[in-house]
Amino acid sequence: MWSSSANNTTDFAFCDNELDGFHTGYVAIHGWVALIVCIFGSIANGLNIAVLTRREMTSPTNAILTGLAVADMLVMVEYIPYAFHSYLDKRPRSETFTYSWAVFVLFHSIFAQVFHTISIWLTVMLAIWRYIAVIHAQKSREWCTYKRSIIAIVAAYVICPLICIPIYVTTEVQHRNVTINSSSDNSSSSSSSSSSSVSGGNGSSAGDANTTIYYVQMTESAKHSAAQEVNFWIYSVVIKLIPCVALTILSLPLIRALMEAKKRRKNLTTATMLKMEESINLSEGKKRKRKVSRAMDKERQTDRTTMMLLAVLLLFLSTEFPQGLLGLSSVIFGKVFFNKCYVKLGEAMDILALMNSAINFILYCAMSRQFRTTFHKLFCRWKFLNRWLPVPQQAENNNGHTMNNTVTQVTHV
């Protein structure tokens, strides 16, 4: 049931004019793009897990990043057979659209949504942890413990599947008999979204033939109730928009803290230089400079940690917020908007989500010295990678701490 006063007055012709060409062109390459991104992302997240679970990397933040990497990796590993079969398999529809494939599409729509939802809420948890560390630094050790991080991860993996229950009970494999022409059979294209993929065909013929088409669709009872709208409300509001709003609210204080820290360091540097110039005792001036330098290094490290996590959050927002708006528009404007606009952006939304899940490894390598060092110890023996390694520092520059390192101990390359 789609309720909207706009259904009878708006035909969304602009979607036909603007999106048809984009949809047709992108679908032709989506399979290869998705396959490359998923293979890279699966390997990258596997490396993330291997590095983040090392003993020297143990920390509450890294525990959440590990849970995030597991969810992202599962999403991409599962998407590989879907992308290959739906977009790259050139066999006739009658040979590829089988009942077993329709069952896999149903599994795919549920599995991908559940683990992507887990990834979304773990990202929110990561933002909360960082907010506490920056805004309530004195309480962070007490509130953001390793044990509580594990509890939060387990809660995400348990609660998110429950949130997605309406998807399980309102979709099913259905079938209908159709006549397939051999000329169109070989030129068929796949569906535009995993949750509404069409599959079928359990026979082939040289000419026109009747065959059974299997597809994933809303159950008949759901079509005549509010279940379809409930699904879109859950998808657009609970899974997409609420996390995006929460991340925006949490990110603003972090950005403000970065700006204040930059200003504070500038003032501290100026004041230190003036005091050194006024100091008669040279050794006292050097001692003061070392002390201030250590304090500034620690603050820079904290700021770079925040910058890296902000990059993760902003990438997430750029991917998920448009999807939430499109889902909400489908609820407000009804089935016409869904069919003419939303469906044609299905592959584009998929690839954005997949790229967001794959890129964290690059961020960690680019911004975290500890991650690069641990990665090198585990996997790399090539000399050209030595330029990525940090210059050894004295223990005093790290306040004497050598344990409980985190991927978010970042430095400039």
UniProtKB/TrEMBL annotation:
<feature type="transmembrane region" description="Helical">
    <location>
        <begin position="232"/>
        <end position="255"/>
    </location>
</feature>
<feature type="transmembrane region" description="Helical">
    <location>
        <begin position="63"/>
        <end position="84"/>
    </location>
</feature>
<feature type="domain" description="G-protein coupled receptors family 1 profile">
    <location>
        <begin position="44"/>
        <end position="364"/>
    </location>
</feature>
<feature type="transmembrane region" description="Helical">
    <location>
        <begin position="306"/>
        <end position="328"/>
    </location>
</feature>
<feature type="transmembrane region" description="Helical">
    <location>
        <begin position="150"/>
        <end position="169"/>
    </location>
</feature>
<feature type="compositionally biased region" description="Low complexity">
    <location>
        <begin position="181"/>
        <end position="199"/>
    </location>
</feature>
<dbReference type="InterPro" id="IPR017452">
    <property type="entry name" value="GPCR_Rhodpsn_7TM"/>
</dbReference>
<comment type="similarity">
    <text>Belongs to the G-protein coupled receptor 1 family.</text>
</comment>
<feature type="transmembrane region" description="Helical">
    <location>
        <begin position="29"/>
        <end position="51"/>
    </location>
</feature>
<keyword id="KW-1133">Transmembrane helix</keyword>
<feature type="transmembrane region" description="Helical">
    <location>
        <begin position="104"/>
        <end position="129"/>
    </location>
</feature>
<dbReference type="InterPro" id="IPR019427">
    <property type="entry name" value="7TM_GPCR_serpentine_rcpt_Srw"/>
</dbReference>
<keyword id="KW-0472">Membrane</keyword>
<dbReference type="InterPro" id="IPR000276">
    <property type="entry name" value="GPCR_Rhodpsn"/>
</dbReference>
<dbReference type="GO" id="GO:0016020">
    <property type="term" value="C:membrane"/>
</dbReference>
<feature type="region of interest" description="Disordered">
    <location>
        <begin position="180"/>
        <end position="205"/>
    </location>
</feature>
<dbReference type="Pfam" id="PF10324">
    <property type="entry name" value="7TM_GPCR_Srw"/>
</dbReference>
<keyword id="KW-0812">Transmembrane</keyword>
<dbReference type="InterPro" id="IPR053219">
    <property type="entry name" value="GPCR_Dmsr-1"/>
</dbReference>
<protein>
    <recommendedName>
        <fullName>G-protein coupled receptors family 1 profile domain-containing protein</fullName>
    </recommendedName>
</protein>
<feature type="transmembrane region" description="Helical">
    <location>
        <begin position="348"/>
        <end position="367"/>
    </location>
</feature>
